[in-house]
Structures are given as C-alpha cells and as structure tokens.
Design a protein that fits this description.
The chain is an alpha/beta fold. Helix content is about 30%, strand content about 20%. It has 13 helices and 25 strands. The two termini are about 40 Å apart. It binds flavin-adenine dinucleotide (FAD). Flavin-adenine dinucleotide binds next to helix 1 and strand 4. The site of flavin-adenine dinucleotide has 32 residues, from helix 1 and strand 4.
Length: about 500
C-alpha cells in the first residue's frame, strides 16, 4: 500500500527528494546504497510512485525510448524494449520493494515553498497534504529536485478560433477521461510527436476513423519491438544483469552512431527512415509532406514506432494523416487552411506540455525570492548561488534515466565528500567566470520542441566553459561527471 501517513514523517532530514517519478526513485535507491548514513524522505504529490507513467493514461501509453536505457543501470530490464506505462510502473514497483524504499516515500504531499536559511544551514519546505487542512513542514540539509520538466496537472492546449462552437469533446492526453467512449467515433488527433503516434494506432481499431492532424511532420523510425542482441543473450541463458549491461552499451553505441550520421549524412539517415515507412505504406504513399520534416533527423527526438503500428493503421484505412493548419474549429469539426473540413466527434490535443521549472515551488534564499532564470548551472546539475540543491534534468534525445543515475552518483559523491571535509554547505560559485558569455539552457539550433521554446526564459543559463556547460550528451557526461573535480574552486564549501 502506498504510504501517505504524515504522523511518522521525519521532519528533519539530511536530504529531501522532491518527486517519486523515475528520477526520485533513483535518488532514493542511490542514497540508500551510496550514502547509507544519510536520513532522507521523498515527498510526492500524486497518490503513488511513477510520475509521468502514472499521470498519463491515454490509450496505448508507452515509452518511446528503449527500456534497457530508460530502465535503471542497477535493475535489469527483462521485457520488450518499448514498454507500456503499466510495465514501467511494475518495474519501478519492484525497485521500491526490493530495496525497501517505501518507508522513505510520502505520497499526496505537494510542496509549495522552500526557503533556505544560511543561519540554520537548512531548507525549510512546506507541503500541503491531500485530505488534510494541516500543512507539513520538513527541514532538510539538502534538496534533491526530481520534479520532472512539465506541470502534471494540466497539458498545453493552444487556443484556436471557434473552439467554443465545437460540439464534440476536446481531450488532452495528459488528462484523459476514464470514461471517454470513442467506439465508432470520428477522432482527430492534433499533433505529430510520439504521443500522437501512440494514440492514433491505439484508437484506430475501435474508432470509426482517426486522423492525425499535424502542422509539421516528425521523423519516425520503425522496427520490431524487440532487441536481437537481447534475444540472443537470453537464449544463451546469459544472466539478466549481463544482458542488461551489454544491451545498454549497444543501444548507447547505436544511438551515438545515429546522432553522428544525422549530422554528417542527414540525407542517408532520412532515406533509411523513409524506407521503413515505405516498406509498410508502399511507394505511392506521399512521404512529403506527411513524413518529411524541414529539420535534419535528430534535431528533435526521433520517435520510434514499434512494429510500425501507426503505419499499419494508415495502411488498413483506419487512420490517416493531414498535414495542414487549423483555420478554425466549427460545430462539427475543424476547418483547415486548405479549405478542407475534418469532421470529428472527439478532438485529442496532443500538443505538448507546460514547462514547469522546479515543481512550481516558490523558492527563497535568506528571505529573498529566487529566480532560477538568473542562475547558471553547474554541470547542468546545480545552480550558481543556490546552496545545497541539485536537480535532475535528463536527456532529450537519449533516455532520461541515464542522466538520473549519473547525477545520483555525482550527488552522492558530493555528499560523501562534504562529510569527509566536515562541511555543511556547498554552493556553486561563478568567481572569475562571472563575466563569461551566457547561453540558453538549450540552444535552439540543437533542440527546439515547443515546450522548450515557450519556457526557455524560465530556465537557468549555461556558460561557455566547464563546469558551467550543460551538454545534453550522455556519451560525454558518462566520462566527465564521474571524474568531476569537486575541489576545482567552482564549489564553495562552508
Ligand atoms: C508520455 C510521455 C512519454 C515519455 N517517454 C519517454 C521515453 O520513452 N524516454 C525518455 O527518456 N523520456 C520520456 N519522457 C520524458 C519523461 O517525462 C521522463 O523521461 C521521465 O519519466 C521523467 O521522470 P522524472 O521522475 O524526472 O519526472 P516525472 O515523471 O515528471 O515525475 C516527477 C514527479 O514529481 C512530482 N512533483 C512535481 N512537483 C512536485 C511538488 N511541488 N511537490 C511534490 N511532488 C511534485 C510529480 O507529481 C511527479 O510524480 C516521456 C514523457 C511523457 C510525458
């Protein structure tokens, strides 16, 4: 049973972890194994663990990256590479059970404020508790922010003219109604990303027809939802731990090759991706405009379509793609700029997220409100001028969890280093680098999805030199983070 009791909540801890998604559970595991003497608690707003994988309940909800790398380094994945949300939750549940982590997690706790006091050398954090009028206060020496990157309560839906006059249902995938009946209904899914590519085939069997309406196309890779190397190693009865590690390395190696090829020979990569689609839809299907983005492959995450299900749904006539723009909603559907009307009983707005920097928590340092957009990140993991705090912001193009594990190693090493030095406070400090050129957290030409474009002004900055660069590159991070010099002068201890 999920634990939401507050009565036995430890209100003075070494580390407070915010969020029990895949990153928060990683933090708990690593604290327990790498810093066994530190007391800690995880506070989570939802009624149980899982984060993203609990919030999203739309038809077909699944990962778009493989679970060998989206899974933890320390817990073998034994299923198919692309996994449904319930399988991911099952896996996380096993991690919690096997490591006795439940005792540290408190659910239904929503943190609203966090205030650092230099005099106390503590964060004081306030949380409301579902079903109670009494907020709780926890004091913590260190904050480990695992709140993810988007607001869980509500997805992003643009405003289009005529929405009020539309007579059907408008649904966002993030807040999917349990009782939505789409059998034999005409559905339009607005969007072209991994979410749309998942929902369209999942609804296509039951709905009368599903149209994926996209303003601009996305690159899709298709293939069997299986990993040949994993299958072979399993057949040879290689221990799961070995298989997990070997397949992770292969997936990471292949990913780096694709990224490199996408930069050096984008047309070759594009042709290969297109061939996968043509193999299912045939030569006559118009890849341009429906599946030919203007950007080069890998500029945004390439969505993997397991077993080509999206394309089979199109081939079967149950789904189709419209690449066009919305002129206005009308009573019976959507009028497009081309003049065509898409009639729809249900419109699904797979239009993305509202970026949420640090869990919508109001932060203060010594009674001064904190603005994270004014800070510079230390190795993408801490903030200049902010004491005793880390955040986990994973990779956009590789699996998020790869970085959650790496950051956990770094933070645990830092906490143990502080113990050894006999200090209580660590603050990233710009010092002589204060005048360096500052850049956005993510460079637009490197990665530019809508939620980042809309929210980049809220994110911290990065610098032009180590340790103030945030690379978004796992292959580089896995070499540099474990060796990061904690006494290079960029961290101020007291
Ligand atoms: C549909 C979907 C599919 C995705 N698929 C992939 C994929 O295949 N591969 C990949 O690498 N990435 C994927 N992502 C990105 C994904 O969000 C991350 O990979 C990962 O799940 C994030 O984990 P997290 O624990 O860091 O954050 P989240 O999963 O967002 O969890 C954060 C938790 O913190 C809690 N929280 C936030 N603020 C507070 C607060 N103030 N007080 C208390 N609790 C709080 C939230 O309730 C939530 O449970 C996907 C995202 C979505 C939406």
């Amino acid at each position: 049973m999920p634990n939401d009791a507050t009565t036995d909540l430890d209100t003075d801890v070494d580390v407070l972890v915010v969020g029990a998604g895949i990153s928060g559970v990683a933090a708990a595991y690593h604290l327990r194994t790498q810093c066994p003497d530190r007391s800690f608690v995880v506070l989570e707003n939802q009624e149980s663990f899982g984060g993203t994988w609990r919030t999203h309940t739309y038809p077909g909800i699944r990962s778009d990256s493989d679970l060998f790398t989206f899974g933890y380094r320390f817990k073998p994945w034994t299923g198919t590479p692309i996994a449904t949300a319930d399988k991911i939750l099952e896996y996380m549940g096993e991690v919690i059970d096997e490591n006795d982590l439940d005792q540290f997690i408190r659910y239904n706790h929503t943190i609203s404020n966090a205030a650092w006091s230099s005099a106390d050398k503590r964060w004081t954090v306030q949380a409301s508790v579902a079903g109670s009028d009494e907020p709780v206060e926890v004091r913590a020496r260190f904050l480990w922010m695992c709140q993810g990157y988007y607001r869980h309560s509500e997805g992003y839906t643009p405003t289009w003219p005529g929405m009020d006059s539309y007579e059907g249902d408008i649904v966002h995938p993030q807040t999917w109604p349990d009782d939505l009946d789409y059998a034999n209904k005409r559905v339009v899914v607005i969007g072209s990303g991994a979410t749309a590519a998942t929902i369209v085939p999942a609804m296509a069997g039951d709905a009368a027809h599903v149209t994926m309406l996209q303003r601009s196309p996305t690159y899709f890779a298709t293939g069997r939802n299986s990993n040949e190397l994993a299958e072979m190693l399993r057949e040879l009865e290689i221990p799961d731990e070995w298989t997990h590690e070997i397949v992770r390395r292969k997936v990471i190696f292949d990913g780096a090759q694709v990224a490199k090829m996408s930069r050096l020979e984008p047309e070759t990569v594009k042709a290969e991706l297109h061939q996968g689609i043509t193999d299912i839809l045939g030569d006559d299907y118009p890849l341009d405009p429906h599946f030919t983005p203007t950007y080069r492959p890998w500029h945004q995450r390439i969505a993997f379509v397991p077993d080509g299900d999206l394309f089979h749904a199109i081939n079967d006539g149950n789904a189709s793609v419209a690449t066009d723009e919305i002129e206005t909603f009308v009573e019976k559907g959507i009028l497009l700029k081309s003049g065509e009307t898409l009639e729809a009983d249900i419109v699904v707005t797979a239009t993305g997220f509202n970026l949420n920097v640090l869990g919508d928590i109001a932060f203060e340092i010594d009674n001064e409100p904190m603005d994270f957009a004014q800070t510079v990140t230390w190795r993408g993991a801490m903030f200049s001028g902010v004491p005793n705090m880390t955040w986990v912001f994973g990779y956009f193009r590789a699996s998020w969890t790869l970085r959650a594990d790496l950051i956990a190693d770094l933070v645990c090493r830092l906490l143990n280093h502080m113990d050894a030095k006999g200090v209580d406070v660590v603050t990233p400090t710009l010092g002589d680098d204060a005048g360096m050129e500052l850049k956005p957290w993510v460079e637009a030409e490197d990665f530019n999805p809508g939620y980042i474009r809309r929210g980049i002004h809220l994110l911290p900055k990065q610098g032009d030199r180590d340790p103030w660069i945030h690379t978004q590159n796992y292959v580089e991070d896995k070499e540099t983070l474990p060796l990061a010099d904690l006494d290079d002068g960029s961290l101020h201890y007291s």
